[in-house]
């Protein structure tokens, strides 16, 4: 499959509904309104963005900076959602979204993100495609298993995937 | 207003005025004070002005000019106060006070000026001020009279002359305007503006030769090295204007006889200056060469040249001009293509003019059918001699594969090289689009070309592709059939039934179905190996859904568009289409929900926001709609106020429709009236241009503006508003008659004398109501129907006058028949090709008992569309009306009626006429649903057949006929309802047909 040329665009209060549409189409879980309310607030457009193809948003990535528990002053980038509409998958759009965030972190690792040590996410244990995607393409490593992370889907367990930032 | 510059100076003039001793002439001190009053007025220092005026009046309380000036200042302050309060907005309780104070002040101003004038009738200052006062309350006729009176006293007062001229052109007193401007020019012959204005004034009276003379005289006054002869904007505009006027001029005296070398060399090789009415154009074409070096509007220059060349039959020259235009980048301008085709086919003058007026993507090829020879000529010019030139597009890789073996040669002299426009301008979309119109829809080449075109647009993702292609559904129509002038023109098929039967439609359906199969299986187009992105499939579905929509197949359209939404739920266009299909399919509520969901995708998209507003209003959800539109309105003022200020007519019309459907007729009328007022403002806006345009020498645009303003009341939006106003008033008359409240007397049963009396009473009632709120001096001039409605001088003052009556009770209390009559008269005068306008003119006239006007309206309708169902039912109505009418003594009218009306009925009796219509309907399997309903009604009215027979006329359509919409189906049901128990069976059958045709229809049968 050929890669599709995509543009990135910011997520804001005016177009938040498109994120909702993409997420509803991509994920088995439903995100709370508060998730979208937060996303609608002014976000760093390098960390949260849409991928546009041919004029329409067909995928989105949402990440945030959060503190690493028990490590005062140290932070990580947490990938909350990464979704591409089914019809547009296998065209390299997800990779482009992830790369663009990773590249941004890399470029700022000694500046804005000097306190950031790793990038991490949760992935459902059954989601082999996603695990292969992160491990194979971006060098994430499978971490601990979190039991009963999800409430309404089966299996309810997830792995943590993480990638350390080398300095 | 700087209109009284000279007033102070002139006031010092001494004449033997009987007011001598009353301060005439004023002593030095007061005379200086008076000059100050004028100065203060002009610099808008009104309070100081009043103070100075009071100082004079203290010594000379009866000094007329001071009283007038004081009145003028008070008037200006009143206007300013109203504007001020209007700008405060808010709609709160304070407004009434502000506006009220303004009205009081205005009264005071009028009294002061009148008193001043009485004191000094021989002062031109007083008359001038009196005129200015009238002008400020839009009472132009009175103002002109006052100015003329002032000029009788001081005939060479430049300022008053100028003011008079302005009003004359505004009121289109063209000859008066010309005379006034001549006077000004005579007084100040060294001003360019005065020369130009006089030239325009002569031109607008229709005297093109005279205008040329004026312009020539002006040019003669200039030095040869003057800036007017150099290349700059003003000189260029002036030259092009002169050229324009020249083209309109005639050549009886001025053109030299044949043999004049200069003229003959340019004006055409073979012509010997025949007397064909083209002399002006020949001269203008020569003149173009003379001004070539100073004209900066190169496109305008070339377009003008092209038009002249075509009219003169200089086709080779025209082709060269077209080449220059294409080189300038006008390849996407369909007007140029239209002209090019005329040149290629050597069309006659009339056809060239017709093509020149075409709009949008229309060209000669979509105006009338082309012969095979003509097609061949055009194809060779556009795509080289061998037809399948589309293969020259290097970027369309897929084109090659499918092109193989499909391009049949269409003419003998085929050359192998690509020589047409398509190869010269490979990136021009217009040329690709025009190719489709040059081929006959039956041939393989057409299928190939439209295939390429669709593929390209689907890959790009062009939402408008479906409507773009719909302009290819052309059907031939014979005009003036049966006469020796018979000719054929293309008409666009719009009804789903006709579209479905169209050859182009079948080609499209076949193509797109094949695309979908192929794209669904492996992402390629048929007979092609290139894989396309997922968007290609979704746009193919989308196009197919649009095609279903065009054929009124709502069920399949919805299932496909749902697939699109599932595929790409972030694409706003899909929601738009779904909403549109739901709306025509009968579920307006869901349509509104869907478009609203689409709107939520992007709150910064004004287009979808407006669409959502419109659909919500159609669904009767006024509050939601207002909130929706408010997102894009300014927030200082209430939304409706803001949209009024923005002259947002589409919203006001939709809101008015919504209110009308709900029965809130007063508020609805107010909204329709708001649209009418906008048009009055558009008309008023001319004032800004009379002086400005001439100063800037944009004379061509100015003349076009004057023409536009003349045609203003014929524009469709105005027509919609006016028609609905008429309909509401007519329905109110019917209501009143039903209720028999006696509130609105039924004039039709009265003798003329009684009617006049009753109307006078009604008018007095009305006057008492309106006088409370307006300060207008009662412009009673019937020629300017817009005068009465106008109140404040500045537009800003108007909305608040309206807001005092939010429910529109004032409008409801007007004399309904008078109002309806007024608007119908405007419509038929300015939009005489609008069949619905004549229909309403008939409805109004018959209620007024004006049978001859009604008869005229019927004949007009017949001349526009003799198959119109509204015409048919009105002929039946008229015939019934006439049979009840007792012949009156007015024998001339009766004579006309008895000799003319039978022509409308084909000299048949009513029964015979209806029978003919019945047979005509039965004979044409597509005859429209509204026509069937009209004939069914007429059958019952004429006692022809039973109700089942009448109903069967409708049922036999199976709804596979023209004119099947939710509305017409509703009307059909209403007809069956009216049949009572006899109609139950028919009604049930009808319901079954409707549910099949409109699977989403919700509220039928309720």
From TrEMBL, chain A:
Keywords: Acyltransferase, Transferase
Superkingdom in the source lineage: Eukaryota
Domain spans labelled N-acetyltransferase: 6-166
GO molecular function: acyltransferase activity
Keyword Transferase annotated: yes
Record-given protein name: N-acetyltransferase domain-containing protein
Species: Discostella pseudostelligera
From TrEMBL, chain B:
Biased composition (Basic residues): 756-767
PROSITE patterns: TPR (PS50005)
SMART domains recorded: TPR
Compositionally biased tracts (Low complexity): 1-12
InterPro entries from the UniProt entry: NatA_aux_su, TPR-like_helical_dom_sf, TPR_rpt
Top-level taxon of the source organism: Eukaryota
Gene3D superfamilies registered for this protein in UniProt: 1.25.40.1010, 1.25.40.1040
Repeat positions for TPR: 124-157
Cellular component, GO annotation: cytoplasm
Keyword Lyase: no
UniProt KW keywords: Repeat, TPR repeat
Pfam family, one: NatA_aux_su
Region Disordered: start-end pairs: 1-28, 741-808
This protein's name: Uncharacterized protein
């Amino acid at each position: 499959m050929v890669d599709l040329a995509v543009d990135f665009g910011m997520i804001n209060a005016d177009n938040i509904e498109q994120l909702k549409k993409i997420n509803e189409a991509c994920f088995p879980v439903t995100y709370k309104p508060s998730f979208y309310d937060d996303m609608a607030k002014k976000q760093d457009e390098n960390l949260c963005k849409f991928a546009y193809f041919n004029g329409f948003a067909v995928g989105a990535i949402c990440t945030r900076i959060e503190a690493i528990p028990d490590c005062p002053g140290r932070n990580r980038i947490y990938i909350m959602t990464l979704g591409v509409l089914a019809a547009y998958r296998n065209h390299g759009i997800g990779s482009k979204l992830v790369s663009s965030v990773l590249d941004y972190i890399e470029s700022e690792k000694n500046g804005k993100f000097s306190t950031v040590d790793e990038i991490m996410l949760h992935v459902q244990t059954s989601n082999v495609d996603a695990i292969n995607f992160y491990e194979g393409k971006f060098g994430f490593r499978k971490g601990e298993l979190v039991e009963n992370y999800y409430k309404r889907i089966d299996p309810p367990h997830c792995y943590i995937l993480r990638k350390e930032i080398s300095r | 207003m700087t209109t009284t510059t000279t007033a102070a100076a002139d006031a010092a003039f001494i004449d033997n005025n009987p007011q001598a001793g009353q301060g005439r002439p004023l002593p030095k001190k007061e005379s200086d004070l008076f000059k100050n009053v004028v100065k203060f007025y002009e610099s808008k220092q009104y309070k100081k002005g009043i103070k100075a005026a009071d100082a004079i009046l203290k010594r000379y309380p009866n000094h007329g000019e001071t009283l007038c000036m004081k009145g003028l200042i008070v008037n200006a302050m009143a206007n300013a106060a109203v504007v001020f309060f209007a700008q405060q907005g808010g709609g709160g309780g304070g407004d009434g006070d502000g506006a009220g104070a303004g009205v009081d002040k205005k009264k005071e101003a009028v009294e002061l000026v009148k008193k001043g004038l009485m004191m000094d009738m021989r002062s031109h200052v007083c008359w001038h001020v009196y005129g200015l006062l009238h002008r400020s309350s839009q009472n132009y006729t009175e103002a002109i009279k006052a100015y003329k009176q002032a000029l009788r006293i001081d005939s060479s007062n430049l300022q008053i002359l100028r003011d008079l001229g302005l009003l004359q052109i505004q009121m289109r007193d063209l000859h008066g305007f010309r005379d006034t401007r001549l006077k000004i020019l005579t007084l100040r012959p060294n001003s360019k503006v005065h020369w130009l204005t006089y030239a325009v004034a002569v031109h607008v009276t229709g005297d093109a030769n005279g205008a040329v003379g004026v312009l020539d005289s002006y040019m003669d006054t200039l030095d040869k090295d003057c800036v007017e002869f150099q290349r700059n904007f003003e000189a260029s505009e002036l030259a092009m204007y002169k050229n324009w006027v020249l083209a309109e001029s005639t050549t009886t005296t001025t053109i030299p006889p044949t043999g004049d070398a200069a003229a003959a060399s340019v004006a055409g090789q073979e012509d010997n200056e025949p007397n064909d009415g083209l002399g002006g154009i020949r001269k203008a074409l020569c003149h173009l060469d003379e001004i070539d070096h100073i004209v900066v509007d190169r496109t305008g220059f070339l377009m003008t040249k092209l038009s002249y060349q075509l009219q003169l039959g200089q086709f080779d020259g025209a082709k060269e001009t077209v080449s220059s235009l294409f080189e300038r980048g006008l390849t996407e301008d369909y007007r140029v293509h239209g002209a090019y085709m005329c040149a290629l086919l050597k069309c006659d003058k009339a056809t060239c003019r017709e093509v020149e007026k075409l709009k949008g993507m229309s060209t000669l090829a979509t105006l009338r059918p082309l012969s095979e020879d003509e097609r061949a000529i055009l194809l060779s010019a556009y795509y080289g001699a061998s037809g399948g030139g589309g293969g020259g597009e290097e970027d369309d890789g897929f084109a090659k594969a499918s092109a193989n073996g499909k391009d049949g040669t269409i003419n003998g002299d085929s050359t192998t090289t690509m020589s047409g426009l398509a190869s010269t301008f490979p990136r021009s979309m217009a040329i690709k689009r025009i190719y489709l119109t040059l081929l006959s829809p039956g041939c393989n080449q057409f299928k190939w070309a439209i295939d390429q075109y669709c593929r390209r647009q689907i890959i790009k993702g062009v939402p408008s592709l479906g409507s773009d292609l719909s302009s290819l559904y052309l059907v031939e129509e014979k005009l003036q059939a049966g006469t020796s002038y018979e000719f054929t023109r293309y008409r666009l098929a719009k009804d789903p039934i006709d579209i479905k039967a169209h050859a182009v439609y079948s080609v499209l359906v076949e193509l797109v179905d094949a695309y979908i199969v192929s794209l669904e299986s492996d992402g390629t187009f048929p007979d092609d190996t290139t894989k396309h992105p997922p968007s290609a499939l979704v746009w193919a579905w989308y196009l197919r859904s649009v095609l279903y929509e065009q054929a009124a197949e709502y069920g399949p359209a919805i299932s496909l568009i749902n697939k699109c939404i599932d595929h790409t739920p972030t694409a706003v266009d899909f929601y738009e289409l779904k909403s549109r299909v739901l709306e025509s399919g009968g579920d307006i509520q869901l349509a509104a929900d869907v478009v609203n969901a689409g709107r939520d995708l992007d709150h910064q998209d004004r287009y979808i926001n407006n669409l959502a507003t419109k659909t919500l209003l159609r669904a009767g959800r006024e509050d939601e709609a207002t909130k929706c539109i408010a997102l894009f309105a300014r927030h200082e003022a209430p939304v409706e106020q803001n949209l009024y200020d923005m002259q947002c007519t589409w919203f006001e019309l939709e809101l008015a429709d919504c209110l009308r459907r709900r029965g809130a007729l007063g508020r609805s009328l107010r909204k329709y009236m708001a649209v009418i007022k906008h048009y009055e403002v558009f008309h008023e806006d001319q004032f800004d241009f009379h002086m400005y345009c001439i100063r800037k020498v944009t004379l061509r645009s100015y003349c076009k503006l004057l023409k536009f303003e003349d045609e203003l009341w014929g524009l469709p939006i105005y027509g919609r508003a006016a028609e609905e106003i008429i309909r509401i008033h007519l329905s109110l008359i019917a209501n009143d008659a039903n209720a028999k409240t006696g509130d609105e007397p039924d004039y039709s049963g009265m003798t003329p004398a009684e009617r006049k009396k009753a109307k006078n009473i009604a008018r007095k009632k009305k006057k008492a109501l309106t006088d409370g709120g307006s300060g207008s001096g009662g412009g009673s001039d019937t020629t300017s129907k817009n005068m009465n409605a106008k109140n404040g001088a500045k537009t800003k003052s108007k909305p608040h006058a309206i807001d005092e009556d939010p429910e529109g009770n004032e409008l409801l209390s007007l004399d309904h028949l008078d109002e309806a009559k007024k608007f119908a008269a405007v419509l038929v005068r300015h939009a005489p090709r609008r069949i619905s306008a004549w229909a309403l003119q008939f409805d109004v006239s018959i209620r007024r008992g004006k049978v001859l006007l009604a008869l005229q309206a019927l004949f007009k309708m017949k001349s526009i569309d003799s198959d119109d169902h509204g015409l048919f039912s009105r002929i039946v109505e008229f015939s019934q009306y006439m049979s009840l009418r007792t012949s009156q003594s007015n024998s001339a009218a009766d004579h006309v009626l008895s000799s003319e009306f039978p022509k409308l009925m084909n000299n048949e009796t009513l029964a015979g006429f209806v029978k003919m219509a019945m047979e005509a309907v039965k004979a044409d399997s597509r005859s429209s649903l509204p026509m069937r309903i009209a004939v069914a009604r007429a059958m019952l009215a004429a006692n022809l057949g039973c109700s089942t027979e009448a109903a069967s006329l409708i049922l036999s359509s199976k709804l596979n006929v023209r004119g099947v919409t939710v509305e017409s189906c509703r009307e059909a049901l209403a007809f069956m309802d009216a049949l009572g128990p006899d109609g139950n069976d028919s009604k049930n059958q009808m319901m079954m047909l409707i549910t099949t045709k409109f699977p989403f229809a919700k509220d039928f049968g309720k």
